[in-house]
Amino acid sequence: ARLVVLVSGSGTNLQALLDACADPAYGATVVAVGADRDGIEGLARAERAGVPTFVARVKDHPTREDWDRALAEQVAAHEPDLVVLAGFMKLVGADFLARFGGRTVNTHPALSPSFPGMHGPADALAYGVKVTGATLFVVDAGVDTGAIVAQTAVPVEDDDDVDSLHERIKTAERAMLVETVGRMAREGYAVDGRRVRLGA
Ligand code: GRF
């Protein structure tokens, strides 16, 4: 399967996918990496792996809708089977979803439907939950609301701060992402309303 991965930051989830894809048995290849900003480690990781990159900045477009359309065009040029948002800090819009809805997944550092949005680890810590985790979901128009493909649970320790908790979540998140994207690529999947089945 052809993967296009979109990133906005350090790209450790991307790196985990790049490493997994080095094994032909994994069943997927990262054919391009896109970002909404320059100068990030995620793009450097792609370049080091010899994977083509592109950047679509919101501020280079007159409206958010124009940006969304341009992003979708750049993704489409690489003919992905699956688009993986891996720490991509923008919401994709209607044009993007019209083209890639149902085959775009995102990872969120909390157990949905708890703590949607930008601050999953901090919100979990502030609430005082003892278990949190990460969720891989099929992207829809909402914020972290899409149909759930996989989840992984992580304990909250008494002495955690946001960074230590997020690091523990990210370790589990990377493993879940690699395992689940591999299964989607090799076995297929079916989205039936909110229910996602692997191996369909
Ligand atoms: C991940 O925890 C992702 O879920 C969150 O931001 C982090 C991105 O990490 N939204 P990285 O860029 O893959 O290292």
From TrEMBL:
One of its GO terms (molecular function) is phosphoribosylglycinamide formyltransferase activity. It catalyses: N(1)-(5-phospho-beta-D-ribosyl)glycinamide + (6R)-10-formyltetrahydrofolate = N(2)-formyl-N(1)-(5-phospho-beta-D-ribosyl)glycinamide + (6S)-5,6,7,8-tetrahydrofolate + H(+). Residues 2-181 form the Formyl transferase N-terminal domain. It is an enzyme of class 2 (transferase). Its EC number is 2.1.2.2. Belongs to the GART family. This is Phosphoribosylglycinamide formyltransferase. The gene is purN.
